[in-house]
Design brief:
Elements lengths: L5 H20 L5 E5 L4 H4 L15 E5 L5 H10 L3 E2 L2 E2 L5 E5 H9 L17 H8 L2 E5 L3 H8 L5 H27 L3 H22 L10 H5 L5 H13 L3 H22 L10 E2 L6 E2 L2 H9 L5 H9 L5 H4 L3 H4 L8 H14 L4
Parallel strand pairs: 2-5
Antiparallel strand pairs: 1-2, 1-6, 3-4, 7-8
Helix pairs in contact: 1-3, 7-8, 7-11, 7-12, 8-10, 8-11, 10-11
């Protein structure tokens, strides 16, 4: 059988299995059904290789009521052993409510307001897992409201994250050149890789797209509008064997980033060319200057206070530790505790 991607398999599973069960057994019950959560299929990147684990017919079923055990039993009782030739896991459908899902996924209460600082504790991958995928049924538009609420960062959070990205670039762009200048090509190459990652993250922000986790980072970058022009320079910077080659590649990339930034019209225009780093024989973008220009546009009191203290960004910019990024989903209340601790770290980063 030819490969059918996960979004389509789950759509068929909803139509041919889930919906008949709900119609027959719970004809007056309103609900929403969707493919959300982890998995390459949610982002549309699954291939035949993806089917070897944690892949197959499944949906999230969202109800208004808390009592979901009987519905779970009904679905498991009617589900076939195989669906379109694919084994069906007994836990193929998760029956929950939107508030319960959000609390388990982001460790926030949907009934209360999501504060500006809360957004800095949400990994972009987690936000993708909620806002991508596919919705198959949505009575009362429960998922529409949720996904619309989380579709992208609020304006000042967006500015803060862009400023933090420029700050990261500004803090290391000259270090790559200094390392190479003293003959440390390995150290220079390592810093170059970090800069490539920071530039790509900045591109996601400038195009208002959530960035996925590392496995699909480059794949998703290729889908950005800027990738065709930036990819050759970033690839050269990544693969170059000398620091002068890296410098030249990054300088071309910085010019394009400057034009992208000016196109956003969030600050006064910045130069679209590089300049010397003090009296040293290499050129940089001066990312920290751009960072401050952006930070000066923030009006939200909490985010402005953070920006004035130090531009450390969000959880994705603070750490790349996979387990730490999943703190919102730690069990037994640990997620809420850990996220609160992270908020305190972000808010009091000067202490």
């Amino acid at each position: 059988m030819s490969f059918i991607n996960g979004i389509e398999i789950c759509r068929r599973f909803h139509t041919e299995v889930v919906e008949p069960v709900m119609t027959d057994s719970y004809p007056f019950l309103s609900y929403s059904s969707a493919l959300l959560g982890p998995g390459s299929e949610v982002l549309g990147y699954d291939t035949e290789m993806s089917t070897d684990h944690d892949w197959g017919p499944r949906v999230y079923l969202f109800l208004n009521e808390q009592d979901s055990d009987q519905i779970q039993v009904s679905l498991q009782g009617r589900a076939p052993g195989r669906f379109h030739g694919i084994p069906v896991d007994v836990q193929m459908s998760v029956v929950t409510t939107v508030p319960r899902f959000i609390e388990s996924y982001l460790a926030v209460n949907q009934d209360g307001p999501i504060e500006s600082v809360d957004w800095l504790t949400f990994p972009s991958q987690s936000l993708l897992e909620i806002t991508r995928g596919a919705v198959y049924k949505d009575d009362h538009r429960l998922l529409y409201k949720l996904r619309n609420q989380l579709k992208y960062y609020p304006q000042d959070v967006w500015l803060y994250l862009m400023a933090s990205s420029w700050q990261r670039i500004g803090q290391e762009e000259h270090l790559m050149l200094r390392s190479g200048f003293i003959g440390d090509e390995l150290g220079s190459a390592i810093i170059a890789s970090r800069l490539v990652r920071d530039i790509i993250n900045l591109c996601f922000l400038m195009e208002r797209q959530y960035a996925p986790y590392p496995k699909w980072f480059g794949t998703a970058f290729k889908q950005l509008k800027c990738s065709d022009q930036l990819m050759p320079y970033l690839w050269t910077a990544q693969t170059a064997t000398t620091w002068r080659e890296r410098e030249h590649a990054f300088n071309n990339a910085y010019k394009h980033l400057s034009n992208m930034h000016n196109g956003l019209k969030v600050t006064e225009k910045i130069p679209n060319d590089v300049s010397c780093f003090y009296d040293r024989p290499f050129k940089v973008m001066n990312g920290e200057v751009v960072a401050r220009l952006i930070a000066n546009q923030i009006v939200n009191a909490d985010i402005k206070l953070l920006a004035d203290k130090r531009l450390i960004g969000n959880i994705d910019q603070i750490t790349d530790n996979t387990d730490f990024r999943k703190i919102n989903r730690w069990s037994d209340g640990e997620g809420q505790y850990a996220r609160t601790a992270l908020k305190k770290l972000i808010i009091h980063n000067d202490k």
